[in-house]
Structures are given as structure tokens and as C-alpha cells.
Amino acid sequence: MSRGKNVRRVAVIGAGVSGVVTAKWLKSEGIEVVVYERAGKVGGNWSVQISDSHRSEGINIITNGRLFNPLSAPEPPYPQESPTPPPLEIRKLLKLQNGEEQKASEIELLFAPPGPAYENLKNNIPTSMQELKGHPWPEGTGDWVTSVEKQKYIESYSEKFDVKGLIRFHTSVENVVKEGDKWIVESVSLIKRGEGEWEVISNVDKFDAVVVASGHYHAIRVPDIPGLKEWKSLWPDKVQHSKAYRRPVGFDGQNVLLIGAGVSAMDIGREIAPSANKIYQSTRGGEYDLPVTYLDPSIERVSEVSSFAIPHLDSSDFPQSGTVTLKDGRKLENIDRVILCTGYHQSRPFLPQFQNHNISVEKADDKVLVTDGTQMHNLHKDIFYIPDPTLAFVGIPYYTATFVFFEYLAIAVAGVFSGKVDLPTESEMRDEYEKRVLLKGYGRNFHSMKQDEVQYVDELVDWINRDIVERGGARVERLSEKWLDSRSERVRLLKEVAEGIRPVEALRCFT
After folding, report:
1. Which of 297, 326, 341 is the last residue of a domain?
2. Is residue 73 part of a domain?
3. Greatest CA separation found in the chain?
4. Which InterPro entries does the annotation name (predicted)?
5. Contact 397, 448 (CB under 8 A)
């Protein structure tokens, strides 16, 4: 059943790699595309948003009663165990509590808060597995590159395929709703009128379809651990989420607790290890914990945190460190810094009609998209919204070679919206979705491609090619042998490091 014959104009939300490749493939099918990006450049999560004027020192701004440092990302109230609520109205956000306008540089940062990329961030999947179709990496590029190089690669792609001109920079999507057969996209744009002069303009546009490519590294997750909220209140600069980390500065001689056992904990731990006194890495023992052999040898893995001891404040000496109790009863004393490497929520605040944060994943009906923030519901192949496939998503799956993988999703979207690829019927999509729920369960694991990415791409390509060739489209090639060989080598290497056969330096993304 074809769903794309009336799709002529499409909104793409986000100008990271997912949004850029989606725009490219839609444009190649003759579809009019408008890309919304609240930041001032292409790149999404790979943009390190630190201006030269902020490199030497941080500027602290009070907004909504919370400290905001433009070197990092603003944090929500603690705890934050469900997806964050919709953002405050932009015009209110851009004013100080006394009603005075912010400085121009501050306005840009408040409008588009920095993402999770830090200065020394590198890819942990080799560039040989992250090459977009028709756009090789520059000659001489190694397997491991900085976030700056990855951002430039995405930007050069957008320029090569004439996507950059389709992007509305400094534009934040506030609300998306279907009225009749059209999607109404409400947005606000930050327009620079002169030196230090900005204006916020409201926009309303109509589209035949919408593609959400805004990523899932925005709404941070802060666990509800007894005492953590109080620690954040007492020591706002000593407790932070990994999204706020920017550089290994200020950790000299410190005792640091990393909460979480994923890539952020591993990477940040290795960066601060040379200067810190002692680093603990706490874990609940989850399915996706990285092996302890991936950590810097100086880091000690400990059990889950039970509580943060609230210090007595009745003395004249304000405490500079605190005690943390673990689930196994052990106490970690003199903890100076806490970094929460606890991940993010799935959250799409501009689609409030499809969100219900008050129910569990198990209670999701056949219309909701977001419940507790651990997964997206009711999507066919993690792409098409089953009740109305003119709403699509590119960039949902985890644990995959994002650039290459997400391009295949973009090709599928372009195929369907152009009418060259038929979607199954709604009942067939629903049946496939329910079978996947039974197989993978609810929550974060539902979107994991840790063992499934090759099979997923093969099935997606077979489905696309079934229709597209006879309707005038070019046959889509599967993952190349070169790519598959690189993946096999990477899997082998990860296994050897996990088993202690080879040192973590063999992964080379840390060197």
C-alpha cells in the first residue's frame, strides 16, 4: 500500500547527520524540504558549542532559578526520572528575572543550549564504517577523528548535495500538529538585526509530512537517589550530568564518582584519570554495562549508589566533600565531584499530543509515542508512525554505526514519501510491531541494534528494492564487503579487550 503519492513538501526537524541525509534523499526525489535547526550550524551532537570568548573562563547566568554555564548544557531540576516537560516560551527564556534583555552571546546560548560533545571527543566507531554514500572522507583521514572533523564532514556533505540552503538556522520547533491532511509546524526564529540586536519571530508552516531527526541526547536522565538533590543544591558546580562535561579541568587531586557504566563514564574517566586523585565508577550491573577492562586501570568499579549523606551545616566550616553509601554497604568518603553518566530520555516536546509521561511502557496504547522516556512506541521499523506514516523518525536506534545506518533509514523515508516504495497496511505494520515487542521487550533494549544492525539493513534494503526498481528508482546496495569486514574486525577487537586479551589502548580511539 503506497502512502507517499501526495507528499510534496516535508519538514525535517534537526540538522545533524540524520536530518541532513534525510533532506538529501528527499530532495533527490524532487520533494520540497525545509530543515529546522535551532543552532547556528550543521552537525547536531558533533558540534562543540564553545565560542572563543568562552574558552578561558565560564560565564554564569541565572535562568529559571538555575545556574547556567555556556561552556556546558543547562541541567533540569534534580531528580529527572521522566522526560523533561515542554520548554518555556522562548521570549520568557531570553529575559533575566528583572526583565532586562540578555547579551547577544548569551541569547544564542540560551536559545540553543550546547549539546553533549566535549572538546576532546572522538568517534568510537571507525570512519571506515561511517562513510556516507557519494561522500568519501578527505584523503588521509584516519579511523579516529575529533568531533570538529566529524562536524566538518557533515557540513561538507550538506554543501555538496545542496542541503545547507534548505536549513533554517536559529529556528526552534515548538509545536507540530496534524490538521486535516496537513501538518502544521509552529516555530520561532532568532533573527540578528544588528550588532547585539536580536528579534524572536514566530512562524507557522504547512507540510504534507514531517520527519523528526532531532536525536536523543537532549533530555537528560537524573536518577532519584536519596541525598543527590541536596548535594546538587549544596554544591551546584560539583555535581553534574555528563552532558555538561567539557574538558578535564578542575579535577586535580579530586576524588570523583562516576555514576553509570556506559561510554560516557569510560571516556570521561580516562580523560580525568591523569589529574584526579581517585576515581570510582558505580554501576547497577546492567545488561549494557561496558566491561571493566575498558576502564582506565586506575579507576575502581563499585556497586550501585544507595544514598548521598547530607552533611551537617551547623558548623562554621562549610564542607567541601561528602560521603556516599553504596548498596553493598561500603562508604566512599571525601567525594569531591560527582558526574552522572546516566543517559537520556526519549522526548519530543513539540509533539505533546503523543506523549504521556504518567504511564509505564507496558501501558502504552496504540497512539502514544513517548511514555516514561525509555523508548519510542508505535513505530514501524523505528521509522514510520503506524497510525499516520506521514510522521516519520530518522535516528531512533541505539548501538549502531550511526552515519551509515541512519542513511538507510533516510532512503526508506524518501522512497515511501516519493511513492516509489509501498508501506505494508496498518494492520500488517501493527502485527510486525507487536511481534518485535514480544521478541525484544519494552524499554531501551527495544531500539538496540547491538546484534541486529546487519540483518535490519538487509531486510530494509530488500523491502525498498522490491518496489523501487520497477518504479524508476535506483537499486539500493546493501552494506559493502569492506564495511562488513571493518565491523567484524571491530567486534573481534572489542571482544579481546573485554576479555583482557588486549589492552584498551588497542581500540585506538583513546590515543
Report:
1. 341
2. no
3. 80
4. FAD/NAD-bd_sf, Flavin_mOase, Flavin_mOase-like, FMO-like
5. yes
Judge if 466 and 374 occupy the same domain. yes
426/189 Cα distance (integer angstroms): 36
CA distance 287 to 13: 32
Whole-Å CA distances, 220 to 81, 83, 193, 216, 435: 9, 8, 33, 9, 30
Distances (CA, A) of 469 to 299, 420, 457, 477: 54, 8, 18, 12
C-alpha cell at 129: 564504517
- Residue 325 and residue 302 share a domain: yes
State how far the Cα of 188 lies from the Cα of 83, in Å rounded to an integer.
Answer: 22
- 16-to-22, 25, 167, 409 alpha-carbon distances in Å: 10, 14, 11, 14
Q: Are residues 365 and 463 in the same domain?
A: yes
Number of separate domains in the chain? 3
Same domain membership, residue 370 and residue 304: no
Domain that holds residue 501: 480-511
User: In sequence order, what are the beta bridge partners of 189?
Assistant: 171, 201
Name the average pLDDT for the chain.
Answer: 87
> Residue 314: CB partners within 8 Å, gap ≥ 6?
none
**Does residue 99 form part of some domain?**
no
Query: How long is the chain?
Result: 511
Query: Residue holding cell 553518566?
Result: 341
Does 96 reside within a domain?
A: no
CA 346 vs CA 356, 373, 395, 435, 444: distances in Å: 12, 4, 11, 22, 9
461 and 489 inside one domain? no
What are phi and psi for residue 111, nearest 5 degrees?
Answer: -70, -40
**Strand, helix or coil for residue 167:** strand
Q: How confident is the model at residue 99 (pLDDT cuts 50, 70, 90)?
A: very low
Mean pLDDT in residue range 190-203: 80
- Beta-strand (E) ranges in 154-293? 167-168, 171-179, 182-194, 197-207, 209-212, 219-220, 239-241, 255-259, 278-282
For 357-412, write each residue's pLDDT tens digit.
888 899 999 999 999 888 999 999 999 999 999 999 999 998 899 999 999 999 99
- Tell me the pLDDT tens digit for each residue of 13-59: 999 999 999 999 999 999 999 999 999 999 998 987 554 434 333 33
Which value, in Å, is the radius of gyration of the alpha carbons in the chain? 23
Q: What is the pTM of this model?
A: 0.90
337 falls within a domain = yes
* Whether the bond into 79 is cis, omega within 30 of 0: yes
Helix (H) or strand (E) holding 145: none
Q: Output the domain CATH number for residue 39.
A: 3.50.50.60
pLDDT at 193: 76
Q: Report how many helices (DSSP H) and strands (DSSP E) the chain contains, helices first.
A: 10, 22
Supply 164's cell numbers: 545547507
323 and 203 co-located in one domain: no
Q: Residues 25, 133: contact at Cβ < 8 Å?
A: no
197: helix, strand or coil: strand
Q: Do residue 425 and residue 484 come from a single domain?
A: no
